[in-house]
Amino acid sequence: MGMAVGTSRPAERHGALLCPMEGPAPGAGGLGIDPDDLPDGLVVADEHGRVVCFNAAAARITAVRAADVLGLPLEHALPLEDLNGRRWWTLTDPYGGLATRVGQPERNLLLPGGREVLVSARYVRERPTGPLRRLVISLRGTEARRRSERSHAELIATVAHELRSPLTSVKGFTATLLAKWERFTDDQKRLMLETVDADASRVTRLIAELLDISRIDSGRLEVRRQPVDIAAAVGRHVQAHVTNGHGSDRFLVRIRRDLPMLWADPDKIDQVLGNLLENAVRHGAGTVTIEVAPATTAGPADAECDEERGTAVTVSDEGPGIPEESMARVFTRFWRGSKRGGTGLGLYIVKGIVEAHGGTITVERGPGGGAQFRFILPVGAPAYLA
Ligand SMILES: Nc1ncnc2c1ncn2[C@@H]1O[C@H](COP(=O)(O)OP(=O)(O)OP(=O)(O)O)[C@@H](O)[C@H]1O
Ligand SMILES: [Mg+2]
């Protein structure tokens, strides 16, 4: 039994234009997949090179109606050209070319009128090296890729800009000191070197943040899980701020007793807590309240039950908070609300780390009027303990 694959017109679905797939796939018994449900364009040609399937996404991408091309030879239905203007089907000759070919990798090709489209093809043969029985082509618009390319270009521009100002200062002060060393007093020299030192630290930190971001964006952020005492970690962070001169009355820590276990990457959790507390102190005001409590999280998609126990950490302050209209943007990179802001990467990294742990993070207006950030981490116990 094959999977019924036809066009969206019911009259044709069981008629001559039916293009049954190889079947049955394991577990796919009776699963009828309508090609119009596919997110990508799908074009199928039969053993004579005539189009037998042209789904809705293909029609949208090529701006051609399926009814107008069904039954036509492929080179008329889908007259693709490569970037040098050569006709793609003549060039690749899927029906006559090497019988060992199994397909074409994804390529950027042009439709009539110069519209770009990403095309890949699979050659379905009767038997290996046998004649082509079916040519299956998938089409994708290039907008999404273009958009991500544009966002990369913007990222590079922003990074260059962020690096330039501290480096300009480093360069300026070192050049001045080298040129006129004798003319400055020790105090002046010390002041300049302190500025150079601070700016060099800023560059180092920015680069560390950028490396984190590239790991987050490429899904390479590694989480080394071990049991974490999050209450102790919160205590350490508060202590560090108090040691740095903030009054201990600035912080209020509430730890619930019935906390579940937490398996997480302790260094990364430190990074999250460090950022949220630093933000509350730097951008917020008044008392910073940190609450650690048990919580239920939306469990992983494949779990039998859809809820899972976890730990919720809430950091709230009594400052100006985040304006309602900006709440959706605080977790994006380089967004900063005021001039006092840093690089605006902190919360993006925090969100990336929390999500790499399978958790979630949200922001809202706290009871004291300021910002309230809450992240929830699932227990995350390794499988052998489950
Ligand atoms: N507790 C808070 N109260 C008010 N505004 C906040 C708070 N936390 C964050 N913000 C706003 O969100 C912006 C983004 O925060 P984020 O931590 O991402 O960057 P940053 O603190 O400016 O720089 P970085 O953390 O990279 O040094 C901040 O610039 C600030 O305007
Ligand atoms: Mg920050």
UniProtKB/TrEMBL annotation:
It comes from the Bacteria. Its main location: membrane. One of its GO terms (molecular function) is kinase activity. Keywords: Kinase, Phosphoprotein, Transferase, Two-component regulatory system. InterPro entries: HATPase_C_sf (IPR036890), HATPase_dom (IPR003594), His_kinase_dom (IPR005467), HisK_dim/P_dom (IPR003661), HisK_dim/P_sf (IPR036097), PAS (IPR000014), PAS-like_dom_sf (IPR035965), PAS_fold (IPR013767). Its EC number is 2.7.13.3. Residues 36-71 form the PAS domain. Residues 158-381 form the Histidine kinase domain. It catalyses: ATP + protein L-histidine = ADP + protein N-phospho-L-histidine. CDD domains: HATPase, HisKA. SMART domains: HATPase_c, HisKA. It is found in: Cell membrane. Residues 1-21 are annotated as: Disordered. This is histidine kinase.
